[in-house]
Automatic annotation (TrEMBL):
Pfam families: PycTM. It comes from Neisseria perflava. Keywords: Antiviral defense, Cell membrane, Membrane, Nucleotide-binding, Transmembrane, Transmembrane helix. It comes from the Bacteria. Residues 125-299 form the Pycsar effector protein domain. The keyword Cell cycle does not apply. SUPFAM superfamilies: Calcium-dependent phosphotriesterase. The chain crosses the membrane at residues 133-155, 161-181, 282-301. GO terms for biological process: defense response to virus. Residues 1-41, 62-99 are annotated as: Disordered. Residues 25-41 have a biased composition (Polar residues). This is DUF5706 domain-containing protein. The keyword Cell membrane applies.
Length: 620
């Protein structure tokens, strides 16, 4: 007998007894409850939970009452009812938990949209950082390559540019390093571990064998600690396939864990983007400041020399005195006019051994750097410390290096050349050279006898410095003027009687005469034959009572027994260390040109020159 077979007063129902139908009001309320449930069954609201709870409680009360009022019911039915009650309570609890979780996380679609947009934003940031890193690597790589390739040509001619170029190259390389770290952030941990190990190694806290352990420890750590997150790349690649699949199944079966792992992954992407932008910002900063530092260094090397070593006189004032400055000639030591009217200038430095100067119709000097390079290349040898030039009646040019020793006292083949050649249209023709003059000076017995006869003393050529040379048009001889050695503060001159045989037959130079002349000391700095004065012109440099150096000019007949005569020349004091003197023709008019060896190629300070009319010369 079921509960439906009993009346409300506790008596069994009889045949013919019928249940009373619900009245209209009860039926209406029941229908409203059904409509309310149908209307809200898809939503997650708090009233729904309360209604369900109330219904369950009422049913439980009724069932409990029935059991009490009918103790004679079988125990089997009571057990079923208790089990049903327990199952309903469990379902109620699970449903409430799901509803509470839904209230916390929001709708599934909203959560998915949030994660999708957040991940897309982080990935776009990572792509932007990678693009910027690629730009910096390409740009700085091109700069470093260009400087390394072209640097050899630039620095050889302009060594002062080594400072700004090196600054730019170093900062560009540093910018590349930071850009590479941004593109490969996984290397940052290894670098930090290596830096920490180095600090500990210096302090004695670690040993060399610990380095490998320190570096490998960064590969075994997980982002979240001891438990890996398979959504994160750095954790995922450290797992075996079986571990990965097991953890994937675990995550897919737990809704709460899914959101947690996705949140950790999103946070990891943010940290990764932060690392990349941190190092790409450092790359940009190093490049920016390196560019600025290079610009400052470039301006400095161009302006500081002129600020620290200003010219002794204003250029306009010098021009009013008849003194001008070259554009690309720095240390002229000799000058000789060629048959075509151009000037050949010799300099001390190998990189500027020769220069060709043209004279235009206005008398202005025109320099040609390309022509200079062509002439220097035509000699096919390194010419160091060129000091003297001369020209014979056949148009041959004679060039002489100093034959001096290096600062360490060693002989140098680059400094021991006596050459003869012609220059036509920028080409070096008929070049011949005699390179054993030092041995002849040291061992020639006739020369030593002539010196002994003239000076009553022995001579040693351990110290040689020849800075003057002229061609004797009368006796066809080469005249050598020595700065060293000196004899009792008097200058030494030697005459080579067979220059033609020396260069055409490789004959040994023969000395037929020597002279010792008094020019107030200082040795000969320049010696040339002047066709206008028909005498030799000598330049030297001495010190005054205050120790200041100044140049002097002398004329000398060439006769060993004649004394030189000093020349008075206005404005000569404005040129320091006159070493190049020659008689030239400028637009049909003969003039004397004087050049001072006072420039500096590394500091871009050019040399001065002065054209003198012969009427201005006077004897003291």
């Amino acid at each position: 007998m079921s509960l439906n077979d009993w009346k409300e007063d506790g008596r069994p129902k009889q045949m013919g007894d019928q249940e009373k139908p619900l009245n209209d009001s009860a039926a209406t309320e029941s229908q409203q409850d059904v409509d309310f449930w149908d209307h809200n069954q898809n939503g997650v609201v708090e009233n729904e939970v309360e209604v369900v709870a109330d219904a369950v409680e009422i049913q439980e009360a009724v069932e409990g009452q029935e059991v009490v009022e009918h103790p004679e019911m079988p125990s089997e039915k009571s057990e079923k009812k208790a089990k049903r009650k327990k199952d309903k309570a469990k379902k109620k609890k699970n449903k409430a938990e799901d509803l509470n979780a839904s209230d916390l996380l929001g709708t599934n679609k909203g959560v998915e949209t949030m994660f999708r947009n957040a991940v897309r934003s982080e990935m776009e940031l990572l792509a932007l950082a990678a693009t910027k890193a690629n730009i910096m690597i390409s740009l700085n790589g091109f700069i470093v390559s260009a400087l390394m390739i072209s640097g050899a040509f630039i620095f050889s001619s302009s060594p002062e540019f080594l400072i700004p170029a090196s600054t730019f190259m170093i900062t560009a390389a540093a910018s590349i390093v930071f850009a590479l770290l941004s593109a490969s952030p996984e290397r940052i941990g290894k670098m930090q571990a290596a830096r920490t190990w180095l600090k500990d190694f210096v302090r004695g806290r670690s040993k060399l064998r610990d380095l490998k352990t320190r570096l490998s420890s960064t590969e075994t750590r997980f982002f979240g600690g001891s438990q890996p997150n398979i959504l994160i790349y750095e954790d995922r690649v450290k797992l075996q396939k079986d571990q990965y699949w097991e953890m994937m199944q675990e995550i897919m079966g737990d809704r709460k864990q899914i959101y947690e792992k996705m949140s950790d992954h999103l946070y990891w992407l943010g940290l990764l983007a932060d690392k990349q932008f941190k190092y790409i910002n450092l790359s940009y900063a190093v490049f920016r400041w390196g560019l600025l530092a290079s610009l400052v260094a470039f301006i400095g090397v161009k302006t500081l020399p002129s600020l620290l070593m200003p010219p002794a006189n204003n250029a306009a004032e010098l021009r009013s005195l008849g003194i001008n400055m070259f554009n690309g000639v720095f240390e002229p030591s000799a000058v000789q006019q060629l048959p075509d009217g151009k000037l050949l200038i010799a300099e001390d430095e190998p990189n500027h051994a020769f220069s060709i100067i043209s004279i235009d119709k206005t008398g202005r000097f025109v320099e040609d750097e390309a022509l200079d390079t062509r002439v220097i290349t035509g000699f096919k040898r390194r010419l160091s410390d060129l000091e003297a030039l001369a020209r014979d009646e056949e148009g041959f040019i004679y060039a002489l290096t100093s034959h001096s020793r290096t600062r360490k006292g060693n002989r140098s083949p680059d400094r021991e050349h006596l050459m003869r050649f012609k220059i036509q249209d920028g080409n070096v023709l008929g070049l011949t050279s005699y390179d054993n003059l030092t041995q002849v000076l040291e061992t020639d017995h006739k020369l030593h006898d002539l010196i002994r006869e003239r000076t009553k003393a022995e001579v040693s050529f351990d110290e040689i410095n020849i800075e003057g040379m002229a061609f004797d048009p009368v006796k066809k001889r080469l005249v050598l003027g020595f700065r060293d050695p000196e004899f009792n503060n008097m200058a030494f001159v030697a005459f080579i009687s067979n220059p033609k045989d020396v260069f055409e037959r490789n004959a040994k130079p023969e000395f037929d005469e020597v002279a010792v002349i008094d020019i107030d000391g200082g040795g000969i700095r320049s010696l040339n034959y002047d066709p206008v004065l028909k005498t030799y012109v000598i330049a030297n440099e001495v010190k005054d009572e205050n120790g200041q150096k100044f140049s002097q000019l002398w004329t000398w007949s060439g006769n060993p027994t004649d004394e030189p005569q000093k020349i008075s020349l206005p404005n000569l004091q404005h040129i320091t260390n006159v070493e190049a003197v020659d008689s030239i023709i400028v637009n049909g008019k003969p003039q004397m040109i004087l050049m001072g060896d006072e420039g500096n190629a590394s500091q871009k300070i050019t040399a001065k020159y002065m054209l003198v009319d012969y009427s201005q010369l006077g004897k003291q």
